[in-house]
Amino acid sequence: MAPLARTINDTNPNLLFNLYPMQFSQIKVTTADEFDYNQYIIEKKIRTLGNLETGWNYGEGAAPNQEVIEQAIDLSRLGKTYNLSCEVFPVSDGEIEVSLYQDEHFLDILIKKDLTMELTHEVGIGSNYDEKEFIENVSQDKITEKLLDFWEKCNL
User: Fold this and answer.
1) C-alpha span between 128 and 111 (Å, rounded)
2) How many CB atoms lie within 10 A of CB 99?
3) Largest CA distance in the chain
4) Which residues partner with 14 through β-bridges?
5) Distance between the two ends of the chain, CA-based, in angstroms?
6) Which class for 46: exposed (0-12), middle (13-18), buried (19 or more C-beta within 10 A)?
7) Can you name the residues that pair with 89 across neighbouring β-strands?
8) Can you say how many angstroms the Cα of residue 74 is from the centroid of all Cα atoms in its chain?
9) DSSP-assigned letter for residue 10
10) CA dihedral in degrees (135, 89, 46, 17; nearest 10)?
């Protein structure tokens, strides 16, 4: 018997409700306001970096390990809480760079395969930018502090 799917939109058009007979413990309710498509795409992109083949970067390069992937997802979510845009880039040695930005202000966080991180604050676009700050071996707490400072500067 095929699952029964219903959309309840008469009382609340933002409520999607899927019912599968005999599987009521797996019911998931999601409102349109709770679902962020951009964040979904970023997280999907981060997860796919784990599928990179050895040598993906002109004969060099390795896929990031699961811990690096999870850290990148956590940082992208943290950036979202400050309403920052996000891009992610693989780095050839199994690392991921998470770039959180607003307008021409960028916080680039490099997650190394040993889970240490580097933070770079830049202002500008393309090759016309100024590096404002660089921190090696930055902690998660320091990144959170810098994100708050960054958000405040961008929203003055």
Assistant:
1) 24
2) 20
3) 62
4) none
5) 58
6) buried
7) 97
8) 7
9) S
10) 100
Confirm if 58 and 27 have CB atoms less than 8 A apart. Answer: no
| Total residue count of the chain as it appears in this document | 156
Provide the token pair at 121.
Answer: 């604050």
pTM above 0.70, yes or no: yes
**C-alpha to C-alpha distance for 138 and 144, rounded to whole angstroms:** 10
pLDDT tens across 9-59, in order? 444 443 334 444 444 444 444 455 556 888 999 999 999 999 999 999 999
Give how far Cα 101 sits from Cα of 29, 109, 118, 121, Å.
31, 11, 16, 10
> What are 100-119's pLDDT values in tens digits?
999 999 999 999 999 999 99
SS (H, E, C) 53-121: CCCCECCECECCCHHHHHHHHHHHHHHHHCCCEEEEEEECECEEEEEEEECCEEEEEEECCCCCEEEEE
